[in-house]
Structure prediction request, 318 residues.
Amino acid sequence: MPDNAPPPAPAGRQDLAAMIVPLGRNLINAELPVLRAHDLAMWGYSVLLRLDDEPVRTQAALARDIGADKTRIIAILDDLDDRGWIRRQPDPDDRRARLLSLTPEGRRVRDSVQSAIQENEERLLARLDPADRKGFLNALQFLAALPAEEFTDEPVADD
Amino acid sequence: MPDNAPPPAPAGRQDLAAMIVPLGRNLINAELPVLRAHDLAMWGYSVLLRLDDEPVRTQAALARDIGADKTRIIAILDDLDDRGWIRRQPDPDDRRARLLSLTPEGRRVRDSVQSAIQENEERLLARLDPADRKGFLNALQFLAALPAEEFTDEPVADD
DNA sequence: TATTGTTATACTCTATAACTATA
DNA sequence: TATAGTTATAGAGTATAACAATA
Prediction:
């Protein structure tokens, strides 16, 4: 037990996961109509989001980053490629690897979907007390950025 | 667009779902070793949590409350019943229904698991700025209590 | 031999449909 | 006939294993 612990609040609140997981499910459900309107699936959107920041050098790295499997994203990449939303170019330096990048059209789709989604999210956040809203976003950004190993005492499968 | 909207912060942050869903996954992963130590699966733990507050009158209601399917919880209830952690008594007033309740042993297991889980969660929350932590929990409790319909403009399947 | 991408296969999870009993 | 619980089946989603190309 940590020595600086405030009262462990054993019955004071639900488990974080018990609140966060269903909340995530509701947020996903709110995204689905938007995604459907652009004929896009959740994994496809995840790929577009990940590629926005910077191109990615291998499909395996992309898969890992979005929490998927390298075998699972292939059909997704095929689909995005067919529509001209991403490019898959063989790396000249290592022809085994594929340089993944967003096309201008892909970026346009991504921006359009994301602003619709975030507009809806802002509608929810607007219902919060301003101070809570700020603390919520600060804390969420911090926690979401924590590497997976930080969540368990036990080492998580990580080799 | 809401008239009181602050700047929609289009590129300012990730989508809420994109932060919350992976965070939920990490929190679940952190729970798994604890659950395994009690030879309990996630759905079983969900059932114990739901039964804690008050007994439930039908299995279908229990399933709905924990976001499961009435056919899916049967094996889970069988298992919890076999271990003596829950009771399934036919309702004398309507012998089709099963009154579901926690046994003292079930409550003991639930408490033990939950305090281990929340102890770990407190370790994470302790890393937050105190004001953020408070805002985070306030906002989370509010958002987690929102009914599913509040998340979409479109009516969600609800008949 | 090791790695990237790919395909094929098997497995797990979940939902749909059909059945029994009570009402 | 309708509802609660149960069982059996089918489907979607996911991971594991084997393969081809390149290093």
Remarks:
- Residues 58-60, 70-71, 74, 94-98 of chain A lie near DNA strand C (CB under 10 Å from a C1').
- Strands of chain A lie at 86-91, 94-102.
- Residues 16-37 of chain A form the longest helix (22 residues).
